[in-house]
């Protein structure tokens, strides 16, 4: 990590041209009628590959419509689309900088250089856009580089105005806990923070509340403290945030691991209301990196890693499991939920029938996705 933390960020100021900020306005009113029509009909699958490309995949044809070149070096590939489906923001340049693109044109309309001077800032997957599309949120993990030491500084939630365009600076910041990865914005002006517990922070006041107690839960000696995972949370198609966790129920107070019942659970947050539920959903039988719900029945969830699986969480049953040709990290559904797209890790996105889980196609990408997200962008009805 020392070499990464010492890396310098390329100067993005050369990317600014006269009138760029004005042209970068993200308001719906600024789009032309043709752009509005094209975006309204669009259904895109988004992901990032090495050495630094944001791919906009047309889900009607399962072909790459365009690839947007990212400034700087490859980052984590974390990305978030705006709710109107017109823009997407990507974490790049060694997990340090954020870039915003117009999806129809690949035009760079936003950039935030988070490191400055002797302070290097890393963001671990955490990107979110406000419900009204006006603000961008990141969790910053700063480290000051000295001549003979590193000084780890407190993490913070940074708030940017998207209309500030290129070379944007935070307009507000608030202290947050460590270990935060995936975040999401609610309609009520909070950001959901996925960490040891699931919390919510008010982006105007900085007030924090617990949404789902996980590491801090107290269910007695017969339950194992859960291990939560929020590297690839999905849910924009249902306006929700899903964070899986693993726990165990012991037969007695001796906490014998061999006889324990192992469970997958999840914290699920409705981003329209900020309300959440946390519960065990099906037995732990194999590793899952991400979960995504079926819009036709929110009790049906799909999971992916070395397998693709379908689960009924009301019945707490695994309905179907198929082996995948290699490890995948992230998955999404088509708008009509007929197809499952499984990506991340390698250079292929595997397409499956959502009913049978049978493989029905492949999207070949020009580079590997590594830790990149696979997200969907479309206009809501």
Automatic annotation (TrEMBL):
What UniProt keywords are attached to this protein's entry?
Signal
Q: Which domain of life is it from?
A: Bacteria
Protein biosynthesis among keywords: no
Q: Which residues form the signal peptide?
A: 1-22
The protein's matches in InterPro entries, at most eight in alphabetical order, are given as: QH-AmDH_bsu, Quino_amine_DH_bsu, WD40/YVTN_repeat-like_dom_sf
By what name is this protein known? Answer: Quinohemoprotein amine dehydrogenase subunit beta
Question: Which gene specifies this protein's sequence?
Answer: peaD
């Amino acid at each position: 990590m020392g070499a990464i933390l010492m890396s310098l960020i390329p100067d993005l100021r050369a990317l600014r041209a006269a009138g760029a900020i004005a042209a970068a306005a993200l308001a719906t009113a600024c789009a032309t009628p043709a752009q509005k029509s094209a975006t309204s009909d669009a259904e895109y699958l988004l992901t990032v590959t090495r050495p630094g490309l944001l791919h906009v995949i047309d889900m009607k044809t399962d072909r790459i419509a365009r690839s947007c070149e990212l400034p700087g070096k490859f980052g984590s590939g974390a990305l978030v689309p705006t709710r109107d489906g017109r823009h997407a923001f990507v974490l790049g340049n060694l997990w340090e900088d954020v870039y915003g693109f117009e999806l129809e044109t690949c035009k760079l309309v936003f950039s935030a250089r988070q490191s400055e001077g002797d302070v290097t800032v890393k963001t671990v997957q955490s990107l979110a856009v406000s419900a009204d599309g006006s603000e961008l949120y990141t969790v910053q993990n700063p480290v000051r580089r000295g001549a003979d030491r590193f000084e780890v500084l407190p993490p913070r939630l940074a708030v940017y105005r998207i209309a500030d365009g290129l070379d944007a600076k935070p307009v507000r910041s608030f202290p947050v806990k460590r270990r935060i990865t995936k975040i999401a914005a609610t309609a009520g002006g909070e950001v959901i923070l996925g960490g040891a517990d699931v919390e919510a922070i008010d982006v105007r006041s900085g007030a924090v509340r617990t949404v789902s107690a996980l590491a801090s839960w107290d269910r007695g000696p017969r339950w194992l403290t859960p291990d939560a995972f929020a590297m690839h949370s999905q849910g924009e198609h249902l306006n929700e945030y899903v964070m899986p966790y693993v726990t165990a129920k012991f037969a007695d107070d001796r906490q014998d691991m061999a006889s324990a019942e192992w469970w997958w659970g999840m914290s699920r947050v409705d981003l329209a209301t900020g309300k959440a539920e946390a519960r065990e959903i099906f037995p732990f039988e194999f590793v899952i990196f991400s979960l995504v719900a079926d819009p036709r029945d929110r009790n049906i969830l799909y999971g992916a890693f070395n397998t693709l699986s379908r689960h009924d969480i009301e019945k707490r049953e695994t309905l179907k499991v198929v082996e995948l040709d290699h490890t995948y990290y992230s998955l999404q559904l088509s708008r009509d939920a007929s197809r499952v797209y499984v990506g991340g890790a390698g250079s292929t996105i595997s397409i499956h029938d959502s009913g049978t889980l049978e493989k029905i196609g492949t999207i070949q990408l020009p580079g590997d996705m590594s830790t990149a997200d696979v997200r969907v962008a479309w206009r809501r009805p």
